[in-house]
Structure to design on (323 residues):
């Protein structure tokens, strides 16, 4: 690679116009910049969809070179309690905007992962938002809107960031590979898009890891398999073999995946996404989905491999009705 900077940072858009897959949101954010006014904003959506990128790009466009003096970023998952709001946010919000862009009277506080804040802290945040409304605009990001208290939601313009579509992910990864002087095959791009499931940070991360193993600057699907991707065929076979009562064969597939570095979380997620492709009736699909869901939370409290085998046994039992 041409330098040691992480690719996700190196290719993070600096301008709103460079953000992909969120056209409607970008269009409306550009209008705020043009009007030199921003309401409180709440960006909701899965990780790697551009929430932080859009926030920083907008701050840069509003304040120009003074942006860092007028922008405070707090990651709420590091500091989840009420004190962070009391101390950091209030002190910052109470002082005036800096710079000669004096048409903009407010500063921006960016509260990343604000769904990690306790309800008490969210209550304090709500009061702070009201009190310093003139001097300070809040941009909150979260993965799940349901974890934000209603009085905050109603004070913000809410934007739902979509998963990045397959085509855009493939184009971006191809662009990055080319810039880094690599050739990448279409299958490799498809594999990256498939395994990243709309998360562009993950897609670029997979690309980056694959560059470590690739030979003669050509990235093929095998390079992607090696670093992250679980072949859809393997996932299908795990379920099919379990359903047909081949417990040992199914377990072995899981053991292999885990010894090659796949996490139980990854395996479960991909199993869940493959259920719809199976040629079994809907009732059976639902039952399997419930088993996978059950397994998912159980893996947090006990041994992952044991739980995955428990899951296979449950699916095998279910399959015995159709055998
Ligand atoms: N919509 C997007 N357009 C362009 N790049 C993106 C987009 N979303 C994510 N990225 C890439 O992924 C990285 C992480 O994105 P980020 O904005 O931090 O995601 P989020 O805050 O939604 O978790 C960025 O550095 C950038 O390289
Ligand atoms: Mg973020």
């Amino acid at each position: 690679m041409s330098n040691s900077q992480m690719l996700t940072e190196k290719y993070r858009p600096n301008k709103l116009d460079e953000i992909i897959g969120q056209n409607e949101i970008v269009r409306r954010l550009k209008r705020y910049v043009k009007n030199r006014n921003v309401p409180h904003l709440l960006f909701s959506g899965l990780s790697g969809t551009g929430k932080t990128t859009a926030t920083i790009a907008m701050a840069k466009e509003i304040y120009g070179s003074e942006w860092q003096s007028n922008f405070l970023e707090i990651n709420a998952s590091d500091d989840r309690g009420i004190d962070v709001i009391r101390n950091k946010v209030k002190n910052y919000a109470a002082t005036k905007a800096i710079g000669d862009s004096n048409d903009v009277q407010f500063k921006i506080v960016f509260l990343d992962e604000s769904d990690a804040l306790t309800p008490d802290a969210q209550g304090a945040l709500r009061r702070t938002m009201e009190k310093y409304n003139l001097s300070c605009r809040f941009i909150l990001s979260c993965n799940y809107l349901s974890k934000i208290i209603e009085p905050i939601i109603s004070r913000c313009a809410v934007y739902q960031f979509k998963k990045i579509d397959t085509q855009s992910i493939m184009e971006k990864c191809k662009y990055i590979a080319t810039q880094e002087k690599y050739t990448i095959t279409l299958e490799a791009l498809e594999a990256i898009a498939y395994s990243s499931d709309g998360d562009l940070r993950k897609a670029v991360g997979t690309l980056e890891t694959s560059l470590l193993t690739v030979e003669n600057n050509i990235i093929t699907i095998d390079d992607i398999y090696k670093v992250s991707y679980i072949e859809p065929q393997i996932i299908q076979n795990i379920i099919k073999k379990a359903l047909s009562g081949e417990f040992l064969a199914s377990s072995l597939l899981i053991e292999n995946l885990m010894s090659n570095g796949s996490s139980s979380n990854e395996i479960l997620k991909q199993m869940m996404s493959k259920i719809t492709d199976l040629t079994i009736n809907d009732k059976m699909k639902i039952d399997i989905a419930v088993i996978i869901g059950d397994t998912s939370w159980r893996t947090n409290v006990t041994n992952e491999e044991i739980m995955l085998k428990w899951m296979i046994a449950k699916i095998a039992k279910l399959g015995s009705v159709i055998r």
